[in-house]
Amino acid sequence: MHVEGDFHVRSARTLVWAFFRDPATLATCLEDPHEIHATDATHFEGTLTAGVAFIRGTFRLRGSYASETPPNQMQVTLQGSGMGSGVDAALTVSFAEGSEGTGVHWTGEIKMSGTIATVGERLVKGTVDKKVTALFEAARVKLEPA
Amino acid sequence: MAIDAVEVQSAMPNHRSKTIHVTVNGVPRESHVEARTLLVSYLREHLKLTGTHIGCDTGHCGACTVLVDGTPVKSCMFLAVQSDGSEVRSVEGLETGGKLHPVQEGFHKEHGLQCGYCTPGMMMTSVALLAANPNPTEDEIRRGISGNLCRCTGYVNIVKAIQSAAKEMAAAPKGGP
Amino acid sequence: MATAPLGGIGVSVPRKEDARFIRGKGNYVDDVQLPGMLFLDIVRSPYAYAKILAIHKEKTLAVPGVLAVITGKDLEAAKLSWMPTLMSDTQMVLPTDTVMFQGQEVVGVVATDRYAAADGVAAMEIDYEPMTPVIDPFKALDPGAPVLRTDKPGRKDNHIWHWEVGDKDGTAQALKESDVVIKEKIYIPRIHVSSIETCGCVAQVDSMGKLTVWLTTQAPHAIRTVFALVSGLPENQIRIISPDIGGGFGGKVPVYPGYVIAVVAALTTGHPVKFIEDRTGNLTSDSFARDYHIEAEIGATKDGRLTALRVKTLADHGYTDAAANPSKFPAGMFHVITGSYPFKKAFVEVDAVYTNKPPGGIAYRCSFRVTEAVHAIERLIDILAHQLKMDPAEFRLKNFIPPEAFPFPSVLGWTYDSGNYAGALKKAMEIIDYAGLRKEQVEKRKRGELMGIGISSFTEIVGAGPSKDFDILGIKMFDSAEVRIHPTGKVLARFGTKSQGQGHETTYAQILAEELGIPVEGISVEEGDTDTAPYGLGTYASRSTPTAGAAAVIAARKIREKGAKIAAHLLEVSPDDIEWVDHKFQVKGVPGKSKTMADVAFAAYTNHPQGMEAGLEAVDYYDPPNMTYPFGSYIAVVDIDKETGQIKTRRFVAVDDCGTIINPMIVDGQIHGGLTMGFAPSMLEEIQYDADGNNKATSFLEYLLPTAVETPHWETAKTTTPSPHHPIGAKGVGESATVGAPPAFVNAVVDALEPYGVTNIDIPLSSYKIWQAIHSKDPP
């Protein structure tokens, strides 16, 4: 499924870039219980406890940063598995310098397989949309200067 | 043939347990169950009342239907601890004093069962249906049992079985089954 | 000649087996409890096609209660990671490096109880590398398509087999010469039997090394032989017990990986091991049915005489051919597709392909691909009738094989035993008032209302089968009965078949009551235990009455032969002077001088003639001389709501002819159930996959079984045309209705939509499809 969106913050682009480039900081935007840590300069892993419909449990996450052109664009890939399901996400996040801050745009594909993919597409799509939107909204709030 | 690559370790389950007091088919019970134990597991595994069956694990098929305080409940979606303090009636509790319940008689007489797997749940739903509506129309019966799936009978004879039971119960003196 | 107290042929004897089922005392496999029993649960693949990079057992083994983890690598060490399918293909028990479909068994987790096993499954961590799956069976044949079965040396494509029968050139010529030829594509979607009891087993190894497996199987004896051949265990050290079965419908014929893993777990741990599928496992990995992409052409003269039939079919078998067909017929009896009509020319070809879907190709309450055949021919007949502007009933009546033509050799090689097709159709038309309905339809069309009438006049082929043509993995498809009369005249009879709700304990007893003159109450029927029952191929494809039922008759008649000698001894006459009259041995022409079977049984143990063997029993392995060909005519009447596309089945009349009827109540029950399993895929059921190979029907939330509300009120009637070759003329009835019903529904709906120019709608007939058909065309 395709996800896409954007927001604008009154923060400097380098600051926004750094926020997104640090998995530990980015993880603070997750509303579901999680434990995420970097394993090297470009990789991170951990767990996330989340639920879609009656499937609720802990997913194992492995992620990486790729195709980075700081501070313009990065690709974040995420592989999750657990509860008989798989989630594969590849997001391209772009940062545009504006007169009064930074414009953040994200686009990408999220592919689900296993139990989670079968509980009803509409149900899952709604939940995933909500979670992705919530993640970026939390980032926006945290980045917005007081 | 030997699978020596299999790794074996011994460990016993260690989950939070709770004491419940349930009256099952008229017999008061005090049991210790894991908090997550489903009512169907409690009946089948703890009490060895295997007449209540599991068909879908998701509350759709109704094979596991039992009565909790007279209300039909899908026991695969209901925790044993939720029945604490309640009266539970399963298929094993239908026959009283060596006499079959009119619903059991009806299912036998009208050929309302084939493989027999959905039958206990179907009969428990029927008992509750007739308690609420002693003289249901065919349409009311079909709606009443729509939470119970049967793959063998095509429902025609189940409807007849319930009608037959309704008739017999109407004819029976008050205070009967 | 039958009398009610005897409970013989033709009597609606209430079922003997009910006594335990209505009390909740049935003994299904999940009811088996053994001391020290462990539970097996299975980790399944979330991907349709992926490499397994690593299986991390540690967290699962750390779960309290988990005792063992079994992987494909473990099985490989014992040469058990693959097993043969019934079609001599190969199937993974557990994968060693690649998963082939979503829901495939990947790891077995053995624990002290099912909750702990589920915890172990949830804790399992497996690293996969997903690959692009092959989902579309047509694309599977593209030259560039990835070759899925890389385990098979030298495989260059996904084509499994090609099978054809008939006169290819003659059919082409006949179609060319036909005045009218129509061509239609019909897809018979992938469905699942979904018996309310899922599949499972309990495996136990005793102190003498004997393996006992309680198993949800329709064919216990064949399974024992397969287990022996695969495991190398001596066959006398294997006992398969098929306990009460909560519905089979073909889904409990194959051996599933879980069974083998449970046996391995029992052998490894030394404990009994239970494996019970959950519904998702059942829907995502057990054998599917149907999935035939049919393209068919049918020809006729302009005055409405059928000329030729040509059928090309693509069969999606998933990643392995795990169908359950007789060895000689990889597409089953699909070539009964000429149906109730005397085609002079026909040609049928089927190609099977591998895709990243679960294996199968089993029946769904039908005899080996007969439903697919009946659907195609009964749809084509209707389309052709509409094309010729002939009434579909009249068109059928004009073309049916006439009663005097039986035994009828079909152009594709079958010999139909008996039939009266026009008789059944006329009866159905009379019951439903066909003429009146057509008048009503004309009126309704004038008012713009959508009403349709659909006919299906099917011919089935069941009772496999003659050993010259039919075997499964080389084992001939006979079946058996062993009948023993005790000294007090009570009977124990054992059979090679296995009831799954059909009521064998009652109907077999009735056959024996009729043949032995012993009341049905005194006859016990046992099946399903390979240590006690005679060898047989089991119950599926409506074969029990045609084969084991016939064996019961022959065994009983063998007993009567011996009984006559004992009766002669008791009556002090020559055996030649004894005849079997009114269920008794009687001195010819002297009605007062007779002995009952009970008298004879007592004598067989207490006073048998010197020189004769004591006892009174017989066994028969019955090899039928031919298949039986049940038939019938069904008529559906539907009303369609134009605004919503919703179909309402107003009436459905089913006239069946299954030959001699043993128990009318049970036969009607079989028809009701069969019709509902014909209705189900017609209206609701389908297993679909998305482009990534995700199964989109993994629970009863998406895989819709009909409830009592959707299911029509069935009206049934019978004609009786006995089979000439079956000893009591019976044909088998369990599946006729499932086979015959779907085209009646589609024909009715397409008839209702005729004003919109619709010629075919593939099942399931969802409201959305109907709505689209109505709204994609301009209103008439």
Itemize the secondary structure elements and their pairings.
The complex is a heterotrimer of chains A (146), B (177) and C (780).
Chain A: E1 2-9, H1 13-21, H2 23-27, E2 34-38, E3 43-52, E4 55-69, E5 73-82, E6 85-98, E7 101-114, H3 115-118, H4 121-143
Antiparallel strand pairs in A: 1-7, 2-3, 3-4, 4-5, 5-6, 6-7
Chain B: E1 7-8, E2 17-24, E3 27-34, H1 39-46, E4 65-68, E5 71-74, E6 87-89, H2 102-109, H3 119-132, H4 138-144, H5 156-171
Helix pairs in contact in B: 2-5
Chain C: H1 18-21, E1 38-44, E2 50-56, H2 58-61, E3 66-71, H3 72-77, E4 82-84, E5 90-92, E6 98-99, E7 105-111, H4 114-123, E8 125-130, E9 159-166, H5 168-177, E10 180-191, E11 200-205, E12 211-215, H6 220-231, E13 238-241, H7 257-269, E14 273-276, H8 279-285, E15 288-300, E16 306-316, E17 345-353, E18 360-362, H9 370-387, H10 392-399, E19 408-409, E20 415-416, H11 421-432, H12 434-446, E21 450-459, E22 471-472, E23 475-476, E24 479-485, E25 491-495, H13 504-516, E26 523-527, H14 544-571, E27 578-581, E28 584-587, E29 590-595, H15 597-606, E30 617-622, E31 631-640, E32 647-657, H16 664-683, E33 714-718, H17 736-752, H18 767-775
Parallel strand pairs in C: 1-14, 12-13, 15-18, 16-17, 25-26, 32-33
Antiparallel strand pairs in C: 1-7, 2-6, 2-8, 3-7, 4-5, 9-17, 10-15, 11-12, 11-14, 15-16, 19-20, 21-31, 22-23, 24-25, 24-30, 27-28, 28-29, 31-32
Helix pairs in contact in C: 9-17, 13-14, 14-15, 16-17
Mean pLDDT of chain B: 91
Question: What name goes with the CATH superfamily of chain A?
Answer: START domain
Q: Which radius of gyration of chain A do the C-alpha atoms yield?
A: 15 Å
Mean pLDDT of chain A: 90
Task: Kindly state the percentage of residues in helix of chain B.
Answer: 25-40%
Question: In words, what does this structure look like?
Answer:
The complex is a heterotrimer of chains A (146), B (177) and C (780). Chain A is of the alpha+beta class and 146 residues long. Chain A has helices at 13-21, 23-27, 115-118, 121-143; strands at residues 2-9, 34-38, 43-52, 55-69, 73-82, 85-98, 101-114. Chain A has a 7-stranded antiparallel β-sheet. In chain B, α2 packs across α5 (156-171). Chain B has helices at 39-46, 102-109, 119-132, 138-144, 156-171; strands spanning 7-8, 17-24, 27-34, 65-68, 71-74, 87-89. The longest helix of chain B is centred in the last third of the chain and has 16 residues, at 156-171. Helix content of chain B is 30%, strand content 16%. The interface between B and C is large, with 74 and 86 residues.
